[in-house]
User: Fold Guanidinium exporter from Candidatus Nitrotoga fabula.
Amino acid sequence: MAWVCLYIAGVLEVVWAYSMKLSAGFTRFLPSTVTVVTMMASFALLSISMRTLPLGTAYTIWTGIGALGAFASGILFLGEPVNGLRILAAALIVSGIVLMKLSSTY
Assistant:
């Protein structure tokens, strides 16, 4: 159950990061509200997953999901640039997440 909570927390991190961008510095009501609500839910689920998962594992995977999701969202929805170095950086993040998951005994 901790892994499911962690995965959902990571997806919610992507949602709040994207909606924060759309909030234009918290000047737009709906994206600002989505940001705050999904941020609180993401933190709550992260804290639930940390009841059983080690801090380093949970936090690394949570931020990794968020980083990769924000990277992909920026490319897909905001027209951010794609180049070899950015793809390499994303691949290294994925590698780190996989290694962290494989090294966890939980």
Summary: The two ends are 11 Å apart (CA to CA). Helices lie at 2-22, 29-49, 55-78, 84-103. Residues 5 and 45 are 5 Å apart (CA to CA). The chain is about 80% helix and 0% strand.
